[in-house]
Design goal:
The complex is a heterodimer. Chain A is mostly beta strands. Chain A has no helices and twelve strands. In chain A, strand 5 and strand 6 form a beta hairpin. Chain B starts with a strand and ends with a strand. Classes of the chains: A mainly beta, B mainly beta. Chains A and B meet through strand 5 and strand 6 of A and strand 4, strand 5, strand 9 and strand 10 of B.
Chain lengths: 116, 117
């Protein structure tokens, strides 16, 4: 069965500093990969996604992620964090096989705190 | 504007009561999903539906029920059999595509927070 691990439950970063959130997945084949962001008490917003092709993916709000097949990782990065980036971030994987029912598997999330 | 609406935003339930959470979408999506979110556990899939009048259990379906009588609506009932229903519930929808592209991208509603008193 597929699984997603986000090793860091909390990360605190200073405003203007760089940010990297880790995501490792376990899957039998190359999955679709996603990063979502959630502000407190809100739904999830898609930051970026990887389906195929270039392994460095650009997303909204200045985020990017790199797919590394050899490491089964899909880490999220931002060069300079803004106070508004304080939120919880979720990595998710989905199957490339239609029969699998379009289900996503989510990691446990990483809560990002931004210091002024 | 197209989107997903969930109501109510906050819901309080007494033990032993059934409650129904509403989810409506006007994105013309075929597939809809219900997730439960607990602190530190990410999102767990309760039920999903890929087409009207059809739905499948997710990973934690016990104590929940759904219906899909209309394309735009996918209500979730939390029954008294659910032992620990206090959580944040998220509804999502997606295109039910045949190939890659937007096949798996799910769009989320704002959520309903359910508290059992």
């Amino acid at each position: 069965a597929q699984s997603v691990t986000q090793p860091d439950i909390h990360i605190t970063v200073s405003e203007g500093a760089s940010l990297e959130l880790r995501c490792n997945y376990s899957y039998g084949a190359t999955p679709y990969l996603f990063w979502y962001v959630q502000s407190p008490g809100q739904g999830l917003q898609l930051l970026l996604k990887y389906f195929s092709g270039d392994t460095l993916v650009q997303g909204i709000k200045g985020f990017e992620a790199e797919f590394k097949r050899s490491q089964s990782s899909f880490n999220l990065r931002k060069p300079s964090v803004h106070w508004s980036d304080a939120a919880e971030y979720f990595c998710a994987v989905g199957p490339q096989i239609k029969a699998a029912g379009n289900k996503l598997t989510f990691g446990g999330g990483t809560r990002v705190l931004v210091k002024p | 504007d197209g989107g997903i609406t969930q109501s109510p935003k906050y819901l309080f339930r007494k033990e032993g009561q059934n409650v129904t959470l509403s989810c409506e979408q006007n994105l013309n999506h075929d597939a809809m999903y219900w997730y439960r979110q607990d602190p530190g556990q990410g999102l767990r899939l309760i039920y999903y539906s890929q087409i009207v009048n059809d739905f499948q259990k997710g990973d934690i379906a016990e104590g929940y029920s759904v219906s899909r009588e209309k394309k735009e609506s996918f209500p979730l009932t939390v029954t008294s059999a659910q032992k620990n229903p206090t959580a944040f519930y998220l509804c999502a929808s997606s295109i039910r595509g045949l190939a890659g592209g937007r096949y798996n991208e799910q769009f989320f509603g704002p959520g309903t927070r359910l508290t059992v008193l």
